[in-house]
Design goal:
binds pyridoxal-5'-phosphate; seven-stranded mixed sheet; alpha/beta; globular; about 35% helix; five-stranded mixed sheet; Aspartate Aminotransferase, domain 1; about 15% strand; about 425 residues
Length: about 425
Amino acid sequence: MPRKPLRPETLALHAGWRADPTTGAVAPPIYQTTSYQFRDTEHAANLFALKELGNIYTRIMNPTTDILEQRLAALDGGAAALAVASGQAASAFAVQNLARAGDNIVSSTDLYGGTWNLFANTLRDQGIEVRFVDPADPDAFARATDARTRAYYGETLANPKLAVFPIAEVAAIGRPLGIPLIVDNTAAPLLARPLDHGAAILVYSTTKYIGGHGTSIGGAIVDGGTFDWQAVPERQPQLNTPDASYHGAVWAEAAKPLGPIAYILRARVVLLRDLGAALSPFNAFQAIQGIETLPLRIARHSENAQAVVDHLRERPEVVRVIHPSQQTGLLRERADRYLPNGFGGLLGFELKGGQEAGRRFIDALELFYHVANIGDARSLAIHPASTTHSQLTPEDRLATGVSDGYVRLSIGIEHIDDILADLDQALDAAGGGN
Ligand code: PLP
C-alpha cells in the first residue's frame, strides 16, 4: 500500500482488506460461520481474557464484519468501529455504553423519528433521561448539563428541517467537562467529517447511503479514538470503574494495550455480547459493496438534489424548498463549514395546496418510490403529514417542522432529466399552481 494517507475514494475500495491469504480472492469473502476453532487452550484463554484480539463467536465479531468496521473507521479517520444489526441498535448502544439508570444525556430535538422514540420512551423506561434542546442555540447543551450528564447527541443533517448540527460548537462545550459528542452522520457520509470537528463518536444507519441499494438493514458506531475518557473520570463511570460482568475490568485501563479504543471495546464485549444485536456477515458484505461506490454515489446524490432544488423553486405550486442551499445566515455558514463538498440527497418542499395536494402529488409519481426510507440509489418520496407524522396533532406536526403540504424527497442517482420529468408531471397532477 502507498505510504501517503489515502483519499476517501481509495479507502472506500481498499481499507481493511487486500486479498484472501488462502485463496487469493480479491473480493471480501462472506465468512458465514458462527464460531472459530481455537489453536489450543492457551489461545482460547487469551482471547477470552482480551490478552489477544481474535475471533471467538460471530455474535461479538466476524471477519467479514471486521472488514466493514475497518473500512468505516478509515473513512472517517476514526480509531475503530463496531457494526451492529441496524442504525437503531447503533444509536441505542452508543448511549447505553456511557449512560445507565439515573444518568442523562442531552440531545438535539432534530432527530430521526425512530431515534426520538428510543430516547423519549424506551431509554426513559430504562431509567436514562434524555434532555432535548434546540441545536440552533449550542449553549442550550451547557444549560441542560448536570453532574450525571454522560453524552451530547445530534444528527449532522436531520429531517425535516435539514439544518446542519453545530458540531464543533457543541463538542467544545463537552470536552472540558468530560462529555463526548455523539453524531449520527447517516445523512451525510463522506460529505461531513464530524470527528475532524471534535465529535467523539459517530453513529450510522448503513441501511441508507452506505449500503446504498435498499437491500440490507445495518448500523455502525465509529470511535474517533481522541476522547480522553479518564480526564474527568467521575463523568464516565462505565469506563472508569470495575465492570463486574468482565472480572472487574476497568475499560479505560484494560483497553490501553490495544489502542485508544476503550469505548468501542466495551460496546463490543459488553453490549454486543449481552444484548446480541449482531450484524449478519451477509449484510456486512452488502454494506462493504455499497461503500466501494459511495464516493461516486454521494456526489451524484448531492448534484441531483441541488438541481431538483433549483427546479422546484421555479414551479408555481411550490411555496418553499427546504435544503441547506436555501438557508441563510448562521445556518448557511454551518452548512458550508460542515458539508463543504455537497449537501447530500435529501430535500423537502411545501405545496401550496396543503395536505390534499401532497397526497395527489405522491399518488401521481411514477419514477419515485413512495417509501419510508432515505439514501437508496433510487429516488424516494413521502408525504409525512399523511404517513410518518399522521399520529401527531397538527400543532405538534408543525413544531417538528412538518406542515400539511410538506413533501420529503430522497433524490437518487438516476439521470436528472428523468427525475425532473417525473416531478413535473406529479406537480401538474397536484395542481395549485395558479
Ligand atoms: N438514523 C437516521 C438519521 C435514520 O434516518 C435512520 C433510519 O431511517 C436511523 C438512524 C435508523 O436506522 P435503521 O433503520 O437502520 O435502524
